[in-house]
Amino acid sequence: MKEKHLRVLIVEDNPADAELLELELSKGGYVASTLRVQSAPAMQAALDDQQWDLILSDYAMPRFSGLHALELLKATGKDIPFILISGSAGDDIAIDAMRAGAHDFFGKGSLRLLIPAIERELREADVRATARAQREQLHQNEKLAALGTLLAGISHELNNPLTVIMHQATVLERALRDHPQKARVDTIRQAVGNCSRIVKNFLALARHEPPRRVQVSVNEVVGAAIDLIAYGLRNDNIEVALDLIEHLPAISGDPQQLERVVINLVSNAQYVLRERPVPRRLVLRSSTDAAGERVVLQISDNGGGIPPEIRSRIFDPFFTTKPTGQGTGIGLALCHGIITAHNGTIAVSSEPGAGTTFVISLPIDSTVQAAANDAMSVASSTPPLRVLVVDDNPDVATAFSDILSAQGHTVDIAASSLGALDLIATGAYAIILTDMRMPDLDGPGLYREVVARHPQLESSFLFATGDTFSADTIRFLKESGAVVLGKPCTYEDVENAVEEVVRRRAHREPHSNTA
């Protein structure tokens, strides 16, 4: 028979009566860890120090009462089954106890009924806990959905100028390769990337979208993430050690999402380490588990640690200990969601003053698709193409045209979908890069009209958008199976998206619903 462990706080001034309660628990098959208190300060300290499964309290004590004990419990907000026990079990006393919020009431002569009552109250406490968790999850989902809808509405207007800034910064960067002012361009690009990442983090958290599946090297993800934020780490005098084993097995996943996890965890550690004196150390260590079935990534710092009272809440959305304006409270929730979507786990171990270690475990997948390798082979032989850019914002259209031209393609620009239809009727385009939101006829409308007139161009579309949250957008992108280019985007993002369109055209793939 499996042992039933129970943590019981006994509020009782008589040691003999407390022993009787412990005996009843033992007879009922419980292995009880008990603590007896007989005063308000002692009970308060017990409630603060540890978690309890059950509280058994005497009704009347010389300097403390069961009803006072019940009030102390209620003040904490904790939902712990509370059973009052009295030597004089009159109906008036029982009524007063139940009205005060006790879960049950017994006379000391009726302890034979205690175990069934305990089992009932423990079951009901589990039901209440489940209901609370469901309500909280619903509340969080509602908040995230509302936030995502709000961001979807502004992301289009925000990401268009960010795309232009990113493009102009790229042009300057290429023109100033060896110039001292190149560092200023790097700062601009980093700022645009930060703005874009904030929006994408919120949207990703609200969407709960599944990761795309390609072959991923966790070591390469770590290296790319550290490269992106190395400058800030150096400025904060943080020593970074990479202990990455060679020949680490690949996993199946989304490298961009996983990179976002590493950046979030390292950035959190960076924030904490700024508050402590040197040496400030950060260690990223990769390995496999003992069974050789999972890749393990540990991210450790020597900061101040996480207080035990908040450790269980750090993955909750919008929970943050940072001052107002310095933290959104979504970083760790986003990390948890991404790792869970990859069928992995993320856990934390920390002690005040002894640093913090996050441990990520991801399954090794030997059946991962080699789509990335196929894309690379196509990319290496991608010829110059004729591309049509459709966007009502002339600055954005020019930015895309400049990038595509620099990559060797011939580019035409249409300022509207109606103008695009005229150009498509007279020219053969390998790729049609179009905005999603435009007046008169939007991107999806243009797609449907072109496919109706020129079915062979169905797999030639590349949609540029900053809104991949709204239900209509998601539905259309899944139905069309088209390639999506998120705004703002870099030179490399455009190049990769073009290569993906070429790969799909070359393989004549059916709609894969992976956009």
Which strand order do you get reading across the main beta sheet?
2-1-3-4-5
- % residues in beta strands: 15-25%
Shape: elongated
Low-confidence stretches: 324-328, 368-380, 509-515
Q: What is the helical fraction, as a range of percent?
A: 40-55%
Mean pLDDT: 80
Secondary-structure-derived class:
alpha/beta
Distance between the termini: 52 Å
Radius of gyration: 30 Å
Q: How many distinct beta strands?
A: 17
Major beta sheet, specifics? Answer: 5 strands, parallel
Number of helices: 16
Name its key features:
515 residues; alpha/beta; 5-stranded parallel beta sheet; 5-stranded mixed beta sheet; 16 helices; 17 strands; 50% helix; 19% strand; disordered C terminus
